[in-house]
């Protein structure tokens, strides 16, 4: 008999790296096959934690069909995506990867559910990029934004994530609604809207919130850093351990507890200047300047300064382990210092 499998796409990315590490340490890990799929060969440190590491494209339908034939997939963590800055340079490719790739995975989840007869959890990282505030004045006025407010994305990535949230709801409740043999859709779609994520272990690439991590890693390496947003640019952030916690906690929440399929999750909001102050406090020789790249900075200005994550706290007990103080003192600074210690 085939073991129950969890498929992680974008496994070599920042979130994938942390998620596979977490899966491997969970009780019962040996009872679950971890299938890691990425365009690039999986990092050596992760390969031995996975039952299968597949170098492939989520746009390759033949590959996905082979996964359906070989594994009994009960959960999909679909992390593969082109992030907001990279997506602006290649919007058509971003649409294909971020939307058509997601559609392919939703179809895979539906087909798997039909084969083994139980729901397939489809865990999806959406983003604060789905929001679009029209000006800094409005951004200052609106304060903590709720999930249904200001859903006017200003980037291809934000449009992609917003549409994929709707696709997930569609597959969870309406897919094949006119078919004679409809059956159950079987796709248990659940999403969190991530803020800017900061990892001490990996470096981000292609995001517009990357300046926080770039600043910190540069300081730890003793390299100068020119920040591409202004000192006052403020958005919510979260360190990677809390991002992994959010995905795993949402996935394990009883379905009857959930009143939504898409949730805001928050940890701490800080301006780029406040982040600089914390970085300099930890690395006094850090050379951090502010040289705004106006178009990229303007994207960050459309994202909310804070989001309201009350529904996640009420429905499935969301509660971050790291506020700003603990993020720097207990995770970022000690881990990054160890990473770059000469
Ligand atoms: C990005 O900057 O594109 C991402 C995000 C905010 O979702 N980190």
Core attributes:
three-stranded mixed sheet; 13 helices; 44% helix; 19% strand; binds 2-amino-3-ketobutyric acid
Strand and helix map with partners:
Blueprint: E1 4-9, H1 14-25, E2 32-38, H2 44-47, E3 52-55, H3 61-70, E4 72-78, H4 84-89, H5 91-116, E5 120-127, H6 136-142, E6 144-145, H7 156-173, E7 187-194, E8 196-198, H8 211-221, E9 225-227, E10 234-239, H9 240-252, E11 262-264, E12 268-271, H10 272-282, E13 288-290, H11 294-302, E14 306-307, H12 310-316, H13 324-340
Parallel strand pairs: 1-2, 1-4, 2-3, 4-5, 5-7, 6-14, 7-11, 8-10, 9-13
Antiparallel strand pairs: 10-12
Helix pairs in contact: 1-9, 3-5, 5-7, 8-10, 8-13
Can you put this structure into words, describing what you see?
This protein has a single domain (4-340), classed as NAD(P)-binding Rossmann-like Domain (Rossmann fold), CATH 3.40.50. The protein is 44% helix and 19% strand. The chain has 13 helices and 14 strands. The protein has a 7-stranded parallel sheet with strand order 3-2-1-4-5-7-11, with helices on both faces. The chain is globular and about 60 Å long. The model has no long low-confidence stretch (mean pLDDT 96). 2-amino-3-ketobutyric acid binds at residues 83-84, 127-129, 157, 194, 196-197, 207-209. 2-amino-3-ketobutyric acid (AKB) is lined by residues 83-84, 127-129, 157, 194, 196-197, 207-209.
